[in-house]
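Changelog note: in this version the structure field was regenerated for every chain. One regenerated record is shown below for reference.
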Amino acid sequence: MGRRKSIDPQQLLDAAERVVAQMGAARLTLDAVAAEAGVSKASVVYDFQSKAGLIQAVVERAVARDNAFNREAAKGFNQDALLRGRIAAAAQPFPEAFQPVALALCAAMAQDPQLRAPIQHNQAQILAEIQQQATHPRSALLAYLALEGMKLLESLDYVQWPAAQRQLLLQDIGALIDTPPR
């Protein structure tokens, strides 16, 4: 009978995020993640097989966390709930600690189409669901594009909106949802 696995893959992903934040995704190694997690390299290989598999898992977990956060925020809305929830969730900017991870992952995804696949698939699902729920599908699409553009500028550290201006922008984006298209 084999030994029971005692290393939580989530702890390895936490360690991988710390390594990515410190060194970037390009310089991430399985050895560095193992050292950060205080485990053997074999433990990392067992769960993720390769550096690419590990980075893929970090991206997929980030997508899953973002979706869960946004779906929780959507619970308070009836009409256009998914989009309104995403706008409400955006009232809280990305945690500062995640920004270096997001930047490093964006750089890695720019070079590897396979790493982009989970985000592409997720975006297609979100867009389809927003369009299905929308009272005004074109207006909802414009609101989503404005929201994601704002968030992307922030996550890439191109712009940091003061809290009051951020709230006004989010209110204006929310108003787009109810505006019938021309």
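Spot check on this record: Residues 156 and 175 are 25 Å apart (CA to CA). The chain has a mean pLDDT of 90.
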